[in-house]
Design a protein that fits this description.
This protein has 397 residues and is α/β, with parallel strands linked by helices. It has 13 helices and eleven strands.
Length: 397
């Protein structure tokens, strides 16, 4: 090929690349302006654990607010690596309910729990939010095993989302059961090329509205399939007949909680579980709509079955269970209002009510051993502040 032809080919190739880039930029601008998408705020580590990009600051179109993640990749403020001598540290584990991207951070459960306990105990209490959307106890135990000791917790509080945590655990990504015993699965590390490709995809997912729109279109069928599977799972959770698969899922979940308890003990931390009720457990119209959708009769429903299973487990495993159902149900009925947003997550009142309830439980049940701060001379006791959601009572003896 002659030099002239090579130059012509290079020029045409350059024009093609420039035209393609310009078209993509125009498409990105159009989607960003006319149909903005929810940008991703997650990425996958080398060992398969999904967390947030450390230090990411982004704007979420759905909640219409800026979201910040700290240097550890968590939706929280930055915390000192070394715990101060007069500080009591609580790690909060959970999924999207605790991640709380739908509300401002200061209105989220972890932030409200911290400020509530500081006021109630007049002590320096620090709450670290270790929550990522999609996490079940399988992910939480994996994170705790890898990073927990450096955080120096005094209490591990697991916020269990009852409608999907068991099904999340049934993916068995990090742990499995062998002869009813919890087994850590070998970590399948990605190759350097696989990890780079994953990080490139993650970059576009967290920065490009066009990329997210194309992903949404591509995954429509998968999303419908996931929603159908979740409805089937919820039907079994509140139904009177368990499948063998669900029984195994519950057994795996119980063993994972025991694993969290044991890892916590090795760090000198206690463990407590907060039960986040299903929305249909709070609102009769939501339950009626769900029963109609899946074809369940009233006699088929044992509405508090998940809570009963967890309370029984808590007694047997010596793990404190904080059941939010009675308080949230009572508030919903009395106020004839919802504690949830349209997408199913808590609104600001939901976070506030849950935090006030858990503050009261932690104080009354003395779930943390509080070290007096140098600036406080008050004895430990029930200094709970009454709010619109809770009243105070003497601590249990």
């Amino acid at each position: 090929m002659s030099i002239k032809n090579l130059k012509s080919l290079a020029r045409n190739l350059g024009l093609f690349v420039a035209s393609a880039m310009l078209s993509l930029l125009l498409a990105e601008w159009s989607v960003r302006t006319l149909y903005p998408q929810q940008l991703a705020v997650w990425y996958t580590t080398e060992d398969g654990l999904v967390i947030h990009p450390p230090g990411l600051i982004t704007y979420l179109t759905e909640s219409k607010q800026e979201i910040r993640f700290n240097a550890s990749g968590m939706r929280d403020r930055d915390h000192a690596k070394k715990k101060q001598k007069d500080t009591t540290r609580i790690l909060v584990f959970g999924d999207s309910f605790m991640e709380a991207l739908q509300v401002a951070f200061e209105d989220s459960f972890p932030s409200l729990l911290e400020s509530g306990l500081r006021k109630a105990l007049h002590r320096n209490v620090e709450v670290i939010n270790c929550a990522v959307s999609g996490w079940g106890q399988d992910d939480q135990l994996a994170y705790l095993q890898k990073y927990g000791r450096a955080l120096e917790p005094d209490l591990i509080l697991v916020a269990m989302t009852l409608h999907n945590d068991v099904s999340d655990n049934m993916r068995e990504q990090f742990h499995t059961l062998a002869h009813d015993k919890l087994i850590l699965k070998p970590v399948a590390h990605m190759s350097v090329s696989e990890l780079k490709i994953l990080h490139v995809k993650g970059f576009f997912a967290s920065h490009s509205h066009l990329w997210q729109l194309l992903r949404k279109v591509k995954s429509l069928r998968e999303m419908r399939s996931v929603a159908a599977a979740l409805s089937e799972h919820v039907m079994q959770l509140i139904g009177r007949n368990e499948t063998e698969e669900l029984k195994r899922g519950w057994k795996l979940t119980f063993e994972l909680f025991k694993g969290i308890r044991e890892v916590g003990k090795s760090m000198g931390a206690g463990t407590a579980i907060m039960l986040i009720p299903l929305r249909l457990q709070l609102q009769d119209d939501a339950l009626d709509g769900f029963r109609t959708f899946v074809g369940m009769s009233t006699d088929d429903v044992a509405i508090e079955r998940p809570q009963q299973a967890m309370r029984t487990f808590g007694r047997e495993a010596n793990i404190e269970i904080i059941d939010l159902l009675p308080t949230l149900r009572r508030w919903t009925v009395e106020n004839k209002a919802s504690l949830h947003l349209q997408d199913g997550h808590w609104n600001e009142k939901g976070h506030r009510l849950a935090a006030d309830t858990v503050v009261k439980e932690i104080v009354e049940k003395r779930l943390v051993t509080v070290i007096p701060s140098s600036s406080s001379l008050m004895p430990m006791g029930n200094d709970c502040k009454q709010t619109e959601f809770t009243s105070c009572s003497p601590p249990a003896r």
